[in-house]
Specification:
It is built from 18 helices and 23 strands. The chain folds into 3 domains: about 190 residues, Class I glutamine amidotransferase (GATase) domain (Rossmann fold); about 220 residues, Rossmann fold; about 190 residues, no CATH class. About 30% of the residues lie in helices and about 25% in strands. The longest helix has 22 residues.
Length: about 650
């Protein structure tokens, strides 16, 4: 839809409100990181949704709801304070779908058992399902899905039957799906809402259209109309400051503001934190001027960021250039962003307590930050710079405008096109607010637990069984396992790059975190080198202009290489991580690091898979790129991150 066509659309939902009420699904949030992905998938199928806390009273669910979905969650249903639902929701006479924790909760409510599982499955798994079940109608019995659980159904409740089982390589069989056909209740242990569940969308469609009898009449243009009207109603004649990084999220936010308001009301600020990619700020400012922004200020603030401190729980933390904890880094960076935009507002002669601040926050940002407005139960995976406590305080005052907060990345891109933004801006790869600051893996000492030797030996035995060398790397990265944040070891593996079998690589990358819970990320060595039998030293690394520039050069080599190969646009997100690792620390080589390439394919960014070597990324190209990276001054290994999200996050910190 072009800007001209959009202008012809109604500026509010008045037209729809006069029509027949939409059929809706009630989504009860049990705390899953994927709650909003369920919401998004349902909306993609043109069905309206409303999210409620899991303990919502049945009497608060109006008659328009045609079905209920119980989300997953990080808790165990048998724990004393585990989230519980109102049992009366099962007496409303409408279909219910329980996902992961939601299935376990439903089963236990009706008298079935849920037990700690001897097999904790965090990743892609094969299951067998009964195609007689309405959820799996039209599908094959064998299905590739994402599991993320530590508990499983023991005894199905009376009236329920098992219609799906795990057929993973583990000896323990897991109940993967149950149903009660009389009551139209269904449950799945896996996550059909995520991309890694190949036919999960069809399963949700079957629930909505076959079980609930819906037809669907809800689409993105309806929500865009509401968003523009909401901006107008909220802001009125006031001014709005928008923090723009130049990524698609903040650019669409700025474009929405310009569309909904008078251009002179919109003040954009771009802050160069010193943690941007090569020439990033110059490109950003040129692109922003092209979308019609009249007021744009650029602030160069590298020194301010690197020397900044902040208060966390009454303690002064920092400066940033001495911090290794990723959460503390994110908090400091987020607070500095807020302080700088606050200063810009004051310098404009405006009252901070009466001026709106707009930002490109997405729903996944709030979910992963554990934001209570989105989910009362979700665990914090990582604090996003746009959801730090200072921003939360302004949000409470009603002064934060976040027009994208109900959307995911692919939806924001669609909105960008509807607003007439250029394709090169709409399709830019995501770049986090903290920038390269969370792609320099900082550590002063190696991460060595008491069981390092045992975990390393178990890793090597597991990898060697599939024909790979392996070593446990003494650093930590952030992951998400069982809907909870993990901060655990990296495993490096090596195979035959001349005869690489990607299916085998992916299988071992999935098996390692599932079998060894001390590991949440696996990377493949791209150099023709052997791995050491153990690795117990690192290169002490902090955020500094030197480390940031080193990563900036490596990242530019990777980005330029993918573009020259013509495969950059087939990757959803591409970046490089500076790893504080030297494969031979016995030789004195100061400031020697390794480089890790992260290239993922996804549409929702709540889950992701690594781009396939050999098919999506040519092997000769990646080997040559690895040699080019290792040929840079003080760079040792070049690795490729082969871990899905989950159990790893897309970013390393």
């Amino acid at each position: 839809m072009s800007q001209d066509l959009l202008a012809e659309q109604p500026a509010s939902s008045e037209k729809r409100q006069s029509a027949q009420p939409l059929e809706k699904i009630a989504l009860l949030d049990c705390g899953a990181q994927y709650t909003k992905v369920i919401d998004r998938r349902v909306r993609e199928l043109n069905v309206a949704t409303e999210i409620f806390p899991v303990d919502v009273k049945a009497t608060d669910l109006d008659a328009d709801f045609a079905g209920i979905i119980l989300s997953g969650g990080p808790n165990s249903v048998y724990e004393a304070n585990a989230p519980q639902c109102d049992p009366a929701i099962f007496d409303l006479g409408i279909p219910v779908l329980g996902i992961c924790y939601g299935m376990q909760l439903m089963n236990r409510t009706f008298g079935g058992t849920v037990l700690p599982s001897p097999t904790k499955e965090y990743g892609e798994t094969e299951v067998t399902v009964s195609t007689d079940c309405v959820l799996f109608a039209g599908l094959d019995p064998a299905q590739h899905v994402l599991m993320s659980h530590g508990d499983s159904v023991g005894q199905p409740a009376e009236g329920f039957e098992v219609v799906g089982r795990s057929i993973s390589t583990h000896q323990h069989e897991v109940v993967a799906a149950i149903q009660n056909t009389q009551k139209r209740f269904y449950g799945v242990q896996f996550h059909p809402e995520v991309e890694l569940s190949v036919n999960g969308g069809k399963m949700l469609e079957n629930f909505l259209y076959k079980a609930c009898g819906l037809t669907g009449a809800f689409d993105l243009s309806h929500r865009l109309e509401d968003t523009l009207a909401n901006i107008q109603d909220t802001v009125g004649d006031q001014n709005v400051f928008v923090l723009v990084s130049g990524g698609v999220d903040s650019s669409v936010t700025a474009a929405l503001l310009v569309k909904a308001l008078k251009p002179e009301q919109v003040f954009a600020v771009h802050i160069d934190s010193g943690m941007m990619r090569a020439n990033e700020s110059d490109l950003v400012c040129e692109a922003l001027k092209a979308i019609g922004l009249r007021h744009l200020e650029r602030i160069d603030a590298e020194s301010i960021f690197l020397n900044a401190t902040t208060d966390i729980d009454g303690q002064t933390v920092g400066p940033l250039n001495q911090i290794t904890d990723p959460e503390a880094k994110r908090r400091i960076i987020g607070d500095v962003f807020y302080h700088l935009i606050s200063d810009a507002i004051r310098k404009s002669g405006l009252d901070l307590d009466k001026t709106f601040i707009a930002q490109g926050t997405l729903r996944p940002d709030l979910i992963e930050s554990g934001n209570r407005e989105v989910s009362s139960q979700a665990h914090t995976i990582k604090t996003h710079h746009n959801d730090v406590p200072l921003i939360q305080e302004q949000r409470k005052k009603g002064l934060i405008i976040e027009p994208n907060r109900d959307w995911h990345k692919d939806e924001v891109r669609k909105v960008g096109r509807m607003l007439g933004l250029p394709e090169e801006l709409v399709m830019r790869h995501p770049f986090p607010g903290p920038g390269l600051g969370i792609r320099v893996l900082c550590a002063q000492t190696p991460y060595l637990t008491e069981d390092y030797a045992c975990v390393n030996a178990e890793l090597q035995e597991l990898a060697e069984a599939d024909g790979f060398e392996a070593v446990l790397v003494p650093v930590q990265s952030v992951g998400v396992q069982g809907d909870s944040r993990s901060y655990r070891y990296l495993a490096a593996i090596k195979g035959n790059l001349q005869q690489l079998n990607w299916s085998q690589v992916r299988a071992v990358a999935q098996k390692i975190p599932n079998r060894i819970h001390a590991i949440n990320r696996v990377a493949l060595l791209l150099n023709e080198k052997s791995l050491p039998k153990q690795l117990k030293a690192i290169t002490p690394t902090l955020l500094s202009p030197v480390s940031l520039e080193k990563l900036r050069v490596l990242d530019q080599l990777v980005t330029d290489g993918f573009r020259a190969e013509g495969i950059h646009d087939q990757i959803s997100q591409l970046f490089t991580v500076l790893l504080p690792v030297d494969s031979d620390p016995q030789v004195e080589r100061p400031l020697r690091h390794s480089a890790v390439i992260r290239a993922v394919v996804t549409s929702d960014y709540m889950t992701a898979r690594p781009a396939a070597l050999g098919s999506e990324i040519p092997m000769e190209f990646i080997r040559n790129l690895a040699e080019e990276l290792s040929g840079q001054p003080n760079v040792d290994w070049a690795l490729y991150d082969i871990t899905s999200k989950p159990p790893a996050t897309v970013e390393w910190e």
